Amino acid sequence: MLKLLRFNSRIWFFLGFLGCVFLLSMGAYFQFVQGLDPCPLCISQRIAILLTGLVFLSAALHNPGQTGVTAYAISGAVTALCGAAISTRHVWIQHLPADKVPECGPGLEYVLQNFPLFETVKLMLSGTGDCAKVDWTLLGFSMPEWTLLAFVMLATLSLLQIWNYKGSDDR
């Protein structure tokens, strides 16, 4: 059964890239079609998805040997797990009691224009009261919870390529 799933790691990395494109497309759909404005943590998660997708695309285009696959797999897992950490913080903020939620900060555009880059990054990663609002759910899970699941799946897919490559000789 597992031999059926042992495609070339290049194909799996490309499928991971397509998954990232899908996630970014859904974010754009919710923002531009449904009118849901992303909070700073949502934007940070999108950046992590973009970086993970770029690692996957690079691996698929490069088609490296085992050492390269291992390096790409670890890089993809690290970027996905960084995104998972951001998603975890977002989920945590959404589950805080109302009196413990951080205050809403200024808009991201204002912060980008008026604050140094370090302060902007700090705001994007710490989250604001805007991040506590749940605008959308599917099967009882909020968007950050689904994004956390996606990051865990992307990290797993990435790390499995180390094992997948080792078995490519006996195909």
Automatic annotation (TrEMBL):
Subcellular location: Cell inner membrane; Cell membrane
Pfam family, one: DsbB
Cytoplasmic side: 1-12, 65-70, 165-171
Listed GO biological process terms: protein folding
Main localization, broad class: membrane
Ranges annotated as spanning the membrane: 12-31, 43-62, 69-92, 146-165
Disulfide bonds, paired cysteine numbers: C39-C42
Periplasmic side of membrane: 30-47
Molecular functions (GO terms): electron transfer activity; protein-disulfide reductase activity
Signal peptide annotation: none
GO cellular component, one term: plasma membrane
Topological type in the membrane: Multi-pass membrane protein
Listed InterPro entries: DiS_bond_form_DsbB/BdbC, Disulphide_bond_form_DsbB, DsbB, DsbB-like_sf
Entry keywords, A to Z: Cell inner membrane, Cell membrane, Chaperone, Disulfide bond, Electron transport, Membrane, Oxidoreductase, Redox-active center, Transmembrane, Transmembrane helix, Transport
PANTHER family hit by this protein: DISULFIDE BOND FORMATION PROTEIN B
Summary of the function given for this chain in its UniProt record: Required for disulfide bond formation in some periplasmic proteins. Acts by oxidizing the DsbA protein.
Family classification: Belongs to the DsbB family.
Protein name: Disulfide bond formation protein B
Native source organism of the sequence: Methylobacter tundripaludum (strain ATCC BAA-1195 / DSM 17260 / SV96)
